[in-house]
Amino acid sequence: MTLDLLPIGQRARIVAVDWDSLVAEEAQRLQALGIDVGARVAIAHRGIFAGHDPIALMIGRMNVALRRAHARAMTVEPV
């Protein structure tokens, strides 16, 4: 399942990231925030307008706003 489909509050582990589908600078920024294979994450909130952008991602004690396209590039497994 991709991260954009994860239910709100469900904890998961990132098992794969399609870095080639992202702009290099954006991929580098996400990796600097710790969003990479093995990271444990959960969806805190989704935007309320069409497309539900952005997605608020909890990683550790941080909340990070992601575009839905970025979340779609990440494969997760529930934990």
Automatic annotation (TrEMBL):
<protein>
    <submittedName>
        <fullName>Ferrous iron transport protein A</fullName>
    </submittedName>
</protein>
<dbReference type="InterPro" id="IPR007167">
    <property type="entry name" value="Fe-transptr_FeoA-like"/>
</dbReference>
<dbReference type="GO" id="GO:0046914">
    <property type="term" value="F:transition metal ion binding"/>
</dbReference>
<dbReference type="Pfam" id="PF04023">
    <property type="entry name" value="FeoA"/>
</dbReference>
<feature type="domain" description="Ferrous iron transporter FeoA-like">
    <location>
        <begin position="1"/>
        <end position="78"/>
    </location>
</feature>
<dbReference type="InterPro" id="IPR038157">
    <property type="entry name" value="FeoA_core_dom"/>
</dbReference>
<dbReference type="InterPro" id="IPR008988">
    <property type="entry name" value="Transcriptional_repressor_C"/>
</dbReference>
<keyword id="KW-0408">Iron</keyword>
